[in-house]
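Below is one protein, fold included:
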Amino acid sequence: MRTDITKRYLGWLGAVTAACLLAACGGNPPVPPGERFDAPDYNYVIGPGDTMEIFVWGNEELTTQSIVRPDGKFTTRLVEDLRASGKTPTELARDIEKAYAEYVRQPVVSVIVNGFVGMPEQQVRVVGEATEPQSVPYRQEMTLLDLMIAVGGMTEFAAGNKSVLVRRHGGEQRSYGLRLDDLLKDGDISADMALMPGDIVIISESWF
């Protein structure tokens, strides 16, 4: 497990380094028109740090709130160490019902996620000269402008039009140029675009 995580991290770090070098050289093509507003249809899956309400119909004493631990598991009042990470709320509800069936007759469970962190592959990361660099949970129809609002825009040292989008597409990792100065400073909406889960936005630093 640690080896897989390390490989993913090193792959991500390599992508960031390569994209930064390309950004400095201005060698990234723009996002293809077919991808600019092609928002994916996806199902949210639970990740470490998510806050959940577990509702058990007809058993108020079992209804509770829980936080998914860093190891992807959580504990209820009846069952310890149930895995939540990587499952949809519906899938997790069915797993809890199976676990509770030993103690409750025909349990009916609903899982409501009300504090979102999500899996790393369903986050959008912003690094570099953002005001607040961070990972943001992807949401349906999320755009580049939405993301920049979430991170508070760019610092005064940013070279927005030299920024880079790193995206995995069809099993390949690609880098595209972004026009953040045009979008945020000039209000050029043509520089906006749809984002995808797992995207990395690297905001370059101005060298002068």
The beta strands are 51-56, 64-67, 73-74, 82-83, 109-115, 123-128, 134-137, 164-169, 172-177, 200-203.
